[in-house]
Give the backbone structure.
Amino acid sequence: MDHTDVIFQLILHGGNARSLAMEAIALAKNKDMAGAQDALRRAGEELSQAHHHQTAFIQKEIAGEKPEISMLLIHAQDHLMNAMTIKDLASEFVELYSHVHAGKEAGV
């Protein structure tokens, strides 16, 4: 896989993870906690795929292959870090909605 392919894999999997994390929030808001948990799991899988490509890219640099630092690479890394942050926040939202919905059902 060449340099550009790796960059696009980071963008692809990061974007998928971000979308799934946002979907998890929407599902939790609508009381579909099982769906929310599944979306978070799938977001984690997408982030794992992205991390796999990122790690391979980093290992090449460690081995002496200096990558070309481009705006596209910077964008991919930014995209991935944003997805990771949103996934972490989505986990918190899902947990929060779980407590909110449980409280409403208990009449609190």
